[in-house]
Amino acid sequence: MTPATKGILAMVGIVGVSVGVVLVVLSAGSSGTTPSKDVTGGRSGGAASGGAVPDVIIDNGGPVSIDPLRPDYRVELLSIPSFSQENQDGATVTNDVFTGRVTVVSFFFTRCTFICPVLTGAMIEVMKRLEGTPTRFVSFTVDPEHDTPVVMKKYAAEHGADFTRWTFLSGKKAQTWSLLRDGLKWGIEEREEERILLGDGTSISNIRHPGWFALVGPDGRVLGIYQSSDDAQIGAIVERARAATARLKARG
After folding, report:
1. pLDDT-derived band of residue 196, with 50, 70 and 90 as boundaries?
2. Three-state SS sequence of the chain
């Protein structure tokens, strides 16, 4: 990872994980204002102002599911709630996008200059390494009022997205933010004090959201959570996706 990439992550307070799996603290709900008790021997971190960014535990030895199609320890209750959104072509997409396949899920917005460029680059890297597998990729925009299907398609094309494998989704803001808070127990908040300068000289508030990937199984349940900024975690999600798709194929 380049020093520039690490600098971007430091600006937004994303925690880098060198080993292990990033696990969301379920007991804190969608967010917590105080550090959660570390019951696994890892480290816990407090939420950002307002408590919108959740406490997480960096677990350096917690159990990972032996069966790649079964959720890891402490993410058993996480899943993607029902939704209906539009993809980059304006077609309606629902939870059926996950049915019968293994999917890497991320959240982003096209005007983001903080974690999103790193997140998008990591998604492209994972996609390249999983070429030839039936793994699919889905990215939800957290700024749907701006990120229309047309805007997302332009963004995706500029990053060389393969639309046969990677779907970009835009829906109602309340629905997407609920996917994060209620389904994944991840935090999200608008930060007026963090400004993003646009090309026309104006600026917008940053939308702070986790730079994590969720690996979602064929029934919509989360199998594992992986930090997109960590090389070891990228390797882990690639290995897990390969194993999960192979197991799914074996089941027929």
Report:
1. confident
2. CCHHHHHHHHHHCCCCCCCCEEEECHHHCCCCCCCCCCCCCCEECCCCHHHCCCCEEEECCCCCCCCCCCCCCCCCCCECCCCEEEECCCCEEEHHHHCCCCEEEEEECCCCCCCHHHHHHHHHHHHHHCCCCCCEEEEEECCCCCCCHHHHHHHHHHCCCCCCCEEEEECCHHHHHHHHHHHCCCCCEEEEEEEEECCCCCEEEEEECCCEEEEECCCCEEEEEEECCCHHHHHHHHHHHHHHHHHHHHHC
Q: Rounded mean pLDDT of 131-157?
A: 97
C-alpha 147/C-alpha 188 separation (Å) is: 17
Nearest to 132 by CA among 108, 157, 165, 106: 165
10 Å CB burial of residue 85 (0-12, 13-18, 19+) is buried
Whether pLDDT at 102 is above 50: yes
pTM above 0.85, yes or no: no
| CA distance linking residue 92 with residue 87, whole number of Å | 6
Between CA 141 and CA 169 the distance in angstroms is 6
Q: How many CB atoms lie within 10 A of CB 98?
A: 20
Residue that has been written with the tokens 């982003």 in this structure: 108
User: What are residue 221's DSSP bridge partners?
Assistant: 79
